[in-house]
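ok trying this again, last paste got cut off
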Amino acid sequence: MVKGISRQVIVVDTPEPKLFEQAIFILKDDMEGVTDEVLLKEAQKIMQSRDKSDRKRHIWLYGAFWAAAGALATAAVWAVTLWI
């Protein structure tokens, strides 16, 4: 239970709501002179950068899959030529 704490937050809807509907950003106490528009753009930029890092991971897994498939095919060809 939290008592006596007042915090400002920004709630942003996720671009692709597969698992999460919203993200909540807790603002620092010393946020003076910053407009709401700037805060919202920064929160959206963070959300989009997270989405891009997920794509990079999927590309890496895609490459690893094809590398393993190539190694398996090479091993199969080697095994066939060994028994001939």
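PB: full thing came through this time. Strands lie at 9-13, 22-26.
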